[in-house]
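Open question from group meeting: does this chain pack into something compact, or does most of it stay loose? Before anyone orders reagents, we agreed to write out a predicted structure and look at it together. Recording both the input and the output here so the notebook holds the full record.
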Amino acid sequence: MRYIIYGAGAVGGAVGVRLSRAGFDVLLIARGAQLAAIQRDGLRLVTPAESFTLALPAVGGPAEIAFRDGDVVLLTVKSQDTAAALDDLRLVAGDGLPIVCCQNGVENERAALRRFARVYGMLVLMPATFVEAGVVEVDAGPRHGIFDLGRYPDGVDDLSAAIAADFEAAGFACRAVAAIMPWKYTKLRLNLANAVDAVCGPGAEARDLKDRLRQEIEACFAAAAVNPIPVADFNSRDAVRFDLDPERRRAQRRPAGGGSTWQSLARGAGSVEADYLNGEVVLLGRLHGVPTPVNELFQLLAHRLGRAGSEPGSVPVAEVRRLLAERAAAPRS
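C-alpha cells returned:
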C-alpha cells in the first residue's frame, strides 16, 4: 500500500514523515514554497522529543503520479481546496481510488463521495504548526496525534483496519470506528474558536464570544437532529499527551501561534477554512431557522482577512463586539 498525501502542510507533512520513517511507502503532493523546500532539502519535523529532517518524494499534483493498485489518498488540504483536489485526482486516476478525508469539518466526505465510491472520514486531533516552508512542528507526545477513521457514511472494512494499524505503527493513536462522523461533528464544535484566534489573536480576551459560538452550534445540532459524541466521551479519547510548554517554545525561539486558520493567515495563504467550520454552523442555522450571528460574523471577518492577506489578530475584540451590536440593531430580511 502506498500513501499519497495530498497536502503537505501541518497535518499532511507530519503524517507523511512519520509513516515514511516507520517504513511505509509515502508520496507527498505539495505546492509553492513548501514543494520547493521538500524537493530541495527534505521535510523537517520538530516534536517535543526530537527534531530531524527526512527526504521524501514530493510532486506538484496528481498529473505527475503514475497511479497503481494499492494506492490510498490521504486528503489533507484545507476544505476550501477539497473540490479542486478531488477533481484533479479523478481526472488522472479515475474514481476507484480510496479517499481518506483527514481534515477538519464535515463537508469533505460528501464532496468526495460525489466523485469516488470508497470514502473514509478521519478524525484529526494533533496540535501541529506549519508557518515556515520545509518545517512542520508537532506539540504532542508520546503519541503525536489521534486519527481514528471509518467508512463514510458509516462502517469499517479491511482497509480502514489496515490504515489504523499503519498509523499506530507510525506513532499515532488510531482505530477503526463504525460511526466516525459523530466524532467529527464534536471536533467541529471545538474548531469554531479557530476563527476567533485568527481574527482577534490567540491571546485575545474573548471567552464569552467562544462560548456563544458553541451555544449556537448546540442549538443547530438540536434543530437538525445531529447527534455528536458527547464532549466528555470525546475528551476521554486521551491517548495523546500534549506538550505545550511555553518555556520550551521560547528556548527554541518558536512563536506561540494559533490554530489552522491562524496559520493560514500567518503564511499569507490567501484563503481560510472558516466557510467550512463556522460556515457549517451558519448553514445549519439557515436551513433550520436557528440564529447564528456570532458564527456569521467570524466567518465573514476570517474570509475577508484571508482574501486581503491580512495579518492574524488584525481585528480587536472591541471592534468585533461593536460589529455584533451593529448587526443586531440593523433590520434583517
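Observations to bring back to the group:
Residues 53 and 109 are 32 Å apart (CA to CA).
The domain at 2-179 is CATH 3.40.50.720 (Rossmann fold).
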